[in-house]
Amino acid sequence: MEKVSLYRRFSGLTLIELVIVLMVMAITLSLSSPLMQDLLQNNRLRSESIRFLRAINLARSEAILRNAPVSICPSVMAVTGKAQCSGSYVDGWIVFANADKDEVVDADIDQVIQVFKGLPPGFQLTNRSGTRAAFKLINYLPNGSSRSNRTLLFCPPNNAHVRSLSIVINIVGRARLIGGWGKCPVV
User: Fold this and answer.
1) Distance between CA atoms of 29 and 6, rounded to whole angstroms?
2) pLDDT tens digits, the chain, 187 residues: what are they?
3) How far apart are the C-alpha atoms of 127 and 120, rounded to whole Å?
């Protein structure tokens, strides 16, 4: 009777085969890295613009719910803790009940509804033509209208090859997100 070996002989990779596989992997990773960076920048830009769109929709719905004016203004309240409209939206913003529709958060009559942190470093928020930072107050009236047309342009950091995103607010207060509508400034 012949003995059957319990051990099979397995052949492994040679050193040359292993080096070739590693070279192919390195080339693939080096070619896909910039594409992956752009994909990550695009996702980050979209999430930041949707975060601002959420603040706009919150202001509009709260104005209707409270039957009182509600505003969005640039603020660093997320950092300082002080309810004050100042700077540009890149630094952060607040949604607050604004009885007198001014750019001042009055401690006795206005109520801060929600505070939002600023955009990540390198990201920009400008007007549609990209000529100035966005800083103007956005007011919503009790009927849900904004009574002004406005376009806010979200731009990725300069080295990203990503289309800009715009939030367009029409005169009746409806806000929508549009891709590639505006020119980002080169800084």
Assistant:
1) 41
2) 566 566 666 667 788 888 999 999 988 888 777 778 888 888 999 999 999 999 999 999 999 999 999 999 999 999 999 999 999 999 999 999 999 988 899 988 999 999 999 999 999 998 887 778 889 999 999 999 998 899 999 998 876 788 889 999 999 999 999 988 877 877 6
3) 18
DSSP string, 3-44: PPPS-PPPP---HHHHHHHHHHHHHHHHHHHHHHHHHHHHHH
Is 31 domain-assigned?
A: no
Q: What is the pTM of this model?
A: 0.80
Domain that holds residue 81: 38-179
Number of domains in the chain: 1
Domain assignment present for residue 186? The answer is no
Residue 154 lies in a domain: yes
What's the CA gap between 42 and 40, in Å, rounded? Answer: 5
C-beta of residue 59 within 8 angstroms of C-beta of residue 42: no
Q: Which amino acid is at 11?
A: S
- Residue 163: which CATH number? 3.55.40.10
In a domain, 144, yes or no: yes
